Amino acid sequence: MVSAPETHTGKAQAATGLTMFAAVMMLITGFLNLLRGISAILRNAVYLKTPDYVFKFSLAGWGWVHLFLGIAAIMVGVGLFRVSLWARILGVVIASLLLIANFLSVPYFPLWSIVLMALCSFVIWGLCVVRREETPSGQGGQW
After folding, report:
1. Is residue 34 part of a domain?
2. Predicted pLDDT of residue 74
3. Tell me, what's a Pfam family for it (predicted)?
4. H-run or E-run covering 23
5. Number of compact structural domains in the chain
6. 78-116 core/surface letters (b: 16 or more CB in 10 A; e: else)
7. What pLDDT shows up at residue 138?
8. What integer pLDDT is reported at residue 50 of this predicted model?
9. pLDDT reported for residue 1
10. Do the Cβ atoms of 30 and 141 come closer than 8 Å?
11. What is the pTM assigned to this prediction?
């Protein structure tokens, strides 16, 4: 028979595990977007050209968007290892922005965009699935 403290510890471990999963996925997504941004800025010949796309930017413009979002994702991903509330909130915001940016750039590099959209969705899921009562208690402002 499982006692209440062991169950609470199990829930706290699950919450920490999901946050660590989201942190690792955020770092991966950040590095992939960083590389995508650099490649679009330096050598945009690897991307498709879509003449009649509604959300048309220059490829270098998309490169800068992905570069800055990638840097932000890496910084928040590192912050997620502390399991703090601010990092979880920023993680959802940055992952949402990355998801939107990758959706809008699907015509330029379809497969890469879809893979990154899936990774961003996993990050958002990992950060939002844990309820407050399932997280470690007695840690002040942390979850």
Report:
1. yes
2. 94
3. DUF7144
4. helix 4-42
5. 1
6. ebbeebbeebbebbbebbebbbebbebbbbbbeebbeeb
7. 43
8. 60
9. 46
10. no
11. 0.73
Domain assignment present for residue 143? The answer is no
Within-domain flag for 51: no
The span from the CA of 28 to the CA of 21, in Å, is 11
Contacts of residue 55, defined as CB under 8 A and 6 or more positions apart, other chains included, come to 104
CA dihedral 81, 84, 90, 96 (to 10 degrees): 70
Identify the segments of the chain with pLDDT beneath 70. 1-16, 44-58, 130-143
Which residues fall within 8 angstroms of residue 126, CB to CB, at 6 or more apart? 18, 19, 21, 22, 25
What residues contact residue 92 under an 8 Å CB cut-off, 6+ apart? 123, 124, 127, 128
- Structural domain for 92, as ranges: 19-41+56-133
Q: How far is CA 90 from the centre of its chain?
A: 10
Q: Is residue 139 part of a domain?
A: no
